[in-house]
């Protein structure tokens, strides 16, 4: 069976709008947003204008029944109510469909979105699991202001499908036994950075590598 298309996957996102008064199908709106973002649009106004500029040639293939695309206000109201976690899960499943053999490497890291801060309001902090093989995010989660990346990582790792044999790399922020256990529980391995503030762990690692060095064959003598 061929993998589902992105529009087919987007149809699984719950529609937060009341059934009465819906003008545009949700998958069509999300599909328009994806295309507009890929085309370089970076605001709701730009996405709405993109839909108007391309007219029915774009609207009909995306599933807009009336040949018209939504305005900025419609996009704003919808995206404020959309289930972001459900959308992230759908996108992650679509990416996984296109790489059925799994991923050899996944990079765990968090970033604050540039330009998302507004005065005293902090910026949007996202934790992502990036798959270099497909240059795409395999999973993503917003980090609440009341938590940290370490705790968010446990949530993100718990909701993603299992992967077998993948190596997850991360910086010292994630060097915790529970994060390592979550990765192993999903069938993966991990490679973390250890810093001096974890002195006991660092000493254990140094001692382990010292033992390995003692077992290594001597270097060949120069001729």
Rounded radius of gyration (Å)? 23 Å
Class from secondary-structure proportions: alpha/beta
Q: Please, what is the average pLDDT? A: 89
Strand content: 5-15%
Remind me, CATH topology of the largest domain? Nucleotidyltransferase, domain 5
Q: How many structural domains can be distinguished in the coordinates?
A: 2
Largest sheet: 5 strands, mixed
Low-confidence stretches: none
Rough outline: elongated
Q: CA-to-CA gap between the ends? A: 61 Å
List the total number of helices: 8
User: Given this structure, which CATH class of the largest domain is correct?
Assistant: Alpha Beta
Q: Architecture of the largest domain, according to CATH?
A: 2-Layer Sandwich
Count of DSSP strands:
5
What's this, in brief?
This protein has about 220 residues and is α/β, with parallel strands linked by helices. The chain has helices spanning about 5-10, 25-40, 45-60, 70-80, 85-95, 150-160, 175-185, 200-215; strands at about 105-110, 125-130, 135-140, 165-170, 190.
Topology, pairings included?
Blueprint: H1 6-10, H2 26-38, H3 44-62, H4 72-81, H5 84-97, E1 105-112, E2 125-131, E3 136-142, H6 149-159, E4 167-170, H7 177-185, E5 189-192, H8 199-215
Parallel strand pairs: 1-4, 4-5
Antiparallel strand pairs: 1-2, 2-3
Task: Give a written overview of the molecule.
- The relative contact order is 0.09.
- The chain has eight helices and five strands.
- It has helices spanning 6-10, 26-38, 44-62, 72-81, 84-97, 149-159, 177-185, 199-215; strands at 105-112, 125-131, 136-142, 167-170, 189-192.
- It has 223 residues and is α/β, with parallel strands linked by helices.
- A hairpin with a 4-residue loop joins strand 2 and strand 3 (136-142).
């Amino acid at each position: 069976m061929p993998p589902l298309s992105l529009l087919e996957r987007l149809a699984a996102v719950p529609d937060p709008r009341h059934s009465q008064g819906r003008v545009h199908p949700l998958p069509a709106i999300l599909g328009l947003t994806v295309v507009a973002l890929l085309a370089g649009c970076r605001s709701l106004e730009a996405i709405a204008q993109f839909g108007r500029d391309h007219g029915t040639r774009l609207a009909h293939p995306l599933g807009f029944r009336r040949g018209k695309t939504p305005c900025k206000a419609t996009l704003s109201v919808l995206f404020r109510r959309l289930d972001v976690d459900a959308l992230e899960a759908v996108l992650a499943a679509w990416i996984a469909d296109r790489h059925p053999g799994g991923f050899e490497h996944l990079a765990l890291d968090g970033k604050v979105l540039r330009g998302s801060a507004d005065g005293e309001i902090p910026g949007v902090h996202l934790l992502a699991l990036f798959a270099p093989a497909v240059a795409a995010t395999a999973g993503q989660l917003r980090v609440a202001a009341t938590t940290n990346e370490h705790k968010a990582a446990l949530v993100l790792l718990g909701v993603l499908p299992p992967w077998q044999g993948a190596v997850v790399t991360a910086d010292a922020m994630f060097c915790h036994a529970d994060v390592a256990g979550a990765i192993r529980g999903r069938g993966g391995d991990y490679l973390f950075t250890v810093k001096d503030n974890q002195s006991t762990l660092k000493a254990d690692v140094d001692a382990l590598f010292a033992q390995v060095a003692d077992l290594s064959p001597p270097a060949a003598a120069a001729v």
